[in-house]
Amino acid sequence: MRLRDYIIRRLLLLIPVLIGVSVMTFALTRLIGGPLGAASIYINEKCLQSDTCIDAVIHKYGFDQPIPIQYVNYMKALLQGDLGYSKSAKLLVTDAITSKMPATFELASAAMVIAVVFALPLGVLSATRRNKPVDHATRVLALSGVSIPVFWLGLMLKYLLFYFPFIYLGIKLLPIDGRATSGMYGICTSRVSFPLCASTNLYTVDAILALNGTALWDAVSHLILPALTLAFVTMAIIVRMMRSSMLEVLNQEYIKTARSKGLSEKVVIKKHARRNALIPTTTVIGLSFGGLLGGAVLTESIFTWPGIGRWSADAVTQFDPAAIMGFTLVAAVVYVVANLVVDVLYAYLDPRIRLGE
Q1: pLDDT at 1
Q2: DSSP assignment of 245-304, as one string?
Q3: Are 113 and 105 in contact (CB under 8 A)?
Q4: Which pLDDT score, from 0 to 100, does residue 357 have?
Q5: CATH of the domain spanning 91-354
Q6: Which segments of the chain belong to CATH 1.10.3720.10?
Q7: Low-confidence ranges of the chain (pLDDT < 50)
């Protein structure tokens, strides 16, 4: 089976999974208080003050009809991007997701790049230097990453890289909240202009496209602390998986054969061991990235990062059912897509998978 056919088959298998996700989210919306609870995702503050308006919303969206018809109406609204009104964001849920998802994507991407760049070499080094000082140091680092609470790590980084230098040295190393300096980024119009104009809503990408070095450093400096916080936790998981995978691969017969043929240790590690060790590690990387995209709630809250994770936390505290359901749906879809990407990478790294062996 060719890789293209394998990808098509995996895409087709996503259809029942996504239908299952829609059924679960539909059931959750109907379990929060009958027709009125279901209709609450479309009721804003003004409509809430009028019984006539509430009854009109219930009738308009068919919440007084049989459950099968309600599910059909739910799917129609879902396919049209109608997920209700978010009281916490004071926006339509679709607009809130569209405006906040780029911030989370940028943060998650930066954190994952940092984690992968450092974790994979450390995992390989730890496995090839087993029980040596570098191995012990790497294992301590990995254990710290999975043991330290992310909110504590974020607060310590804020203290060490902002408060301590500012209080004792009088310098500001890195900003500790937001995505950019106030007034640096925005939607440029004929009446309003910003140093960095919104295009992709990814600040670093927009700064690069605009060839604006000042705006790029501003965006990167705001990104460093939250990205390091997320990356440290993610890196620890990847290091442990890469190390254990490498140790298992290094004991395989084909590695012993490669060594007996006189190949250098560098060639054995790079061309024979590392690629096969990446197969199980790919799962961890893909699912970790899916988790980060699903909303790094604590990190975004600590650093006042205006992403989907912080929005979902505000939605819970303010009992915003439309936002909660929208976030649940986005998180589920992100995980499904992450699994698809992992499966495709599996097939690329190991042809036996797509050949059904």
Answers
A1: 56
A2: HHHHHHTSHHHHHHHHTT--HHHIIIIIIHHHHHHHHHHHHHHHHHHHHT--HHHHHHTT
A3: no
A4: 47
A5: 1.10.3720.10
A6: 91-354
A7: 357
